[in-house]
């Protein structure tokens, strides 16, 4: 079993701590000594923080979907020729809610991205300790891969799959279905959101605004689905790494 304090060395027989943490020996043998200079660090705290902030993103997206629906509805009434102060008041209210939702999404997304990338870097470093031969990209791509144009469309998925395989129980490889489903929805939400933002630069009247609002509603709904699957990915990968670390060194039979 791995040391409960440092999460680096094997626990001493009959104890929860390693010899170094117990003060018995200055040089204990590491559990996974495959990559000198690296050691396991628990991803649990960052994983929980990322899950919570992804939940905040989901809440902000739900608010945005509601605001989009209100605007979509009132724009439809305007297109049908409805007039009067009531419909214009509804339109103004919907516009204010859409702007408020956009601000809430921006703040929650920035906070989530910062914590998520910290967690992602942590699990990538742990994967290097578990199984460095499975890592097809250098550690720097764990952050850079999300921001390089074009490469960001597939590098993060590839790195996630490498981490996933390295974090699977010894001698097994778990299905990639969850990661693939999350990444597919993430790309779809990016594509639809990008299309709606490009279209919103043109002012072609109520019909055009109505169509753009519909696109935004779909984009935000896809964001919700992608964020929910991201929560599952973070939770499962965090649990896999924790369980593997607690299992200790590679079984002799492997």
Q: Which descriptors would you attach to this protein?
A:
66% helix, single chain, mainly alpha, 254 residues, transmembrane
Compact summary:
The protein contains seven helices and no strands. It has 254 residues and is mostly helical.
Describe this entry's structure for a reader:
The radius of gyration is 24 Å and the shape is elongated. The longest helix has 46 residues. It has one domain. It contains 7 helices and no strands. The chain is mainly α. α2 packs antiparallel against α7. Helix content is 66%, strand content 0%.
Q: How many E strands? A: 0
* Residues in helices, as a percent range: 55-70%
Report the span from N to C terminus.
17 Å
The tally of structural domains comes to 1
Content-based structural category: mainly alpha
Mean pLDDT: 84
Most strands sheet: none
**Rg:** 24 Å
Number of helices: 7
Which percent range describes the beta-strand content? under 5%
Please tell me what the overall shape is.
Answer: elongated
Low-pLDDT segments: 25-30
Order of helices and strands, N to C? HHHHHHH
């Amino acid at each position: 079993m791995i040391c409960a304090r440092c999460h680096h060395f094997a626990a001493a027989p009959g104890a929860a701590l390693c010899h170094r943490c117990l003060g018995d020996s200055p040089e204990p043998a590491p559990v996974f000594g495959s990559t000198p200079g690296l050691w396991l660090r628990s991803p649990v705290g960052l994983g929980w923080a990322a899950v919570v902030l992804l939940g905040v993103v989901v809440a902000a997206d739900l608010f945005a979907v509601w605001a989009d629906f209100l605007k979509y509805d009132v724009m439809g009434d305007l297109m049908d020729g409805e007039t009067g102060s009531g419909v214009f008041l509804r339109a103004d209210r919907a516009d204010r809610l859409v702007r408020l939702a956009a601000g809430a999404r921006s703040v929650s997304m920035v906070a989530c991205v910062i914590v998520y990338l910290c967690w992602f870097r942590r699990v990538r470093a742990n994967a290097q300790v578990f199984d460095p031969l499975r890592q097809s990209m250098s550690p720097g791509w764990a952050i850079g891969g999300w921001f390089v144009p074009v490469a960001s469309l597939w590098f993060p998925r590839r790195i996630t799959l490498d981490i996933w395989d390295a974090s699977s129980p010894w001698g097994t490889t778990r299905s990639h279905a969850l990661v693939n489903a999350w990444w597919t929805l993430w790309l779809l939400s990016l594509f639809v959101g990008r299309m709606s933002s490009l279209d919103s630069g043109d002012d072609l009247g109520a019909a055009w605004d109505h169509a753009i609002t519909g696109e935004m509603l779909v984009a935000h709904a896809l964001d919700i689905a992608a964020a929910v699957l991201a929560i599952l990915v973070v939770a499962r990968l965090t649990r896999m790494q924790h369980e593997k670390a607690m299992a200790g060194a590679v079984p002799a039979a492997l």
